[in-house]
Amino acid sequence: MHTLIAGAGGPLGRELVDRFLRLDWRVTALAYSIKKFTGWIHPRLTLRAGNVTRPYQIEGLCQGVDVVLSCIGITRMGNHQMTHHEVDYLGNLNLLREAERAGVRKFAFVTPVGAERGAQRGIPLLDAKYQFKNELRRSSLEWLIFRSGAFYPDLAEWGRMAGSGPLAIIGPGTHYSTPIDVGELATLMANDLPEHRNEVIEYGGPENLSWNDIGQIFREQLGRPTRVRHIPIGLCRTLLPLIKPFSHAYHAQGQLILFMFTHDLPTPHRG
Q1: 213 Cβ partners below 8 Å, 6+ apart?
Q2: Exposed site from 49, 87, 118, 188, fewest CB < 10 Å?
Q3: Pairing between strand 199-203 and 228-231?
């Protein structure tokens, strides 16, 4: 089998490339920049660079591919020039259309849990993921939608604040999710991909954790008391619009963070 992994330069994409090579599949890895692939060498691995928001850069990419697995999306905070609509929705849509033209059998897509609720509240990342999910389900291909809890490395970035100052928690900190190890998620997805079609499959780690639980884990790891500062939800909602004129990217990221702190987002305990 031959799979195209789009977004292969990210944490999950890298793990997926490794898992499918272990399963003796042929793999084409696609990233925005070839620099993402430094040191990658394998006889069954093809490396490609391209911007999925520009269809001419991915023309012919899916020829000979059986399955496309897309991890494409803007996930890191930064002053990106492109928007979630351009990358997470239109970029994935361009890749889907290319897959349809090439006769790909199955298209799988990764999205955070809670995309439907986030779309209703106008969260740019979740709205873009939700819109593409609907396009995928209407396509002519077999489809799979993988939904997961937060990744441990992303939580660790937030937790690093505990090492240098107060740990900021929006609201009471009682809302919870089911974070998962990225490598474990890749293993589960690689095992499920050949066996399932036209399904939504959810993944979570071994336990539900509230933000207060996660904060306590950080304090235990540091081995010393760490102040926790609970920021009022109303204050965040008031200040967030003030960011938008200066940075759409940071405003969108702020909306996502506020959503995550104020909603329960559980997934099945599989990883």
Answers
A1: 176
A2: 49
A3: unpaired
For 70, counting Cβ atoms within 10 Å of its Cβ (0-12 exposed, 13-18 middle, 19+ buried), the class is buried
Report field, pTM of the whole predicted structure over 0.90? yes
Tokens representing 271 are: 């990883």
How far is CA 79 from each of CA 72, 74, 86, rounded to the nearest angstrom? Answer: 18, 11, 15
Helix axis angle, 211-222 to 152-159, nearest 10°:
70
- Asked whether the beta carbons of 94 and 55 are under 8 A apart, the reply is yes
Q: What burial letters (b/e) apply to 168-192, b meaning 16+ CB within 10 Å?
A: bbbbebebbbbbbebbbbbbbbbeb
Residue 244 burial (CB count, 10 A): 13
Whole-angstrom Cα distance, residue 108 to residue 105?
10
Backbone phi, psi, residue 51, to 5°? -100, 110
pLDDT tens by residue, 95-114: 999 999 999 999 999 999 99
Angle CA 189–129–195, to nearest 5 = 25
Of 112, 110, 135, 109, whose CA–CA distance to 124 is shortest? 112
Identity at 265, one-letter amino acid code: L
Cα separation, 46 vs 48, in Å, equals 7
What's the token pair of residue 233? 């939800």
Packing angle of the helix pair 124-138, 248-261 (nearest 10 deg): 80
- How crowded is the C-beta side of 134, counted as CA atoms within 13 Å? 9
Give the distance from CA 8 to its chain's centroid: 12
Q: Which amino acid is at 7?
A: G
Residue 207 CB coordination number (10 Å): 10
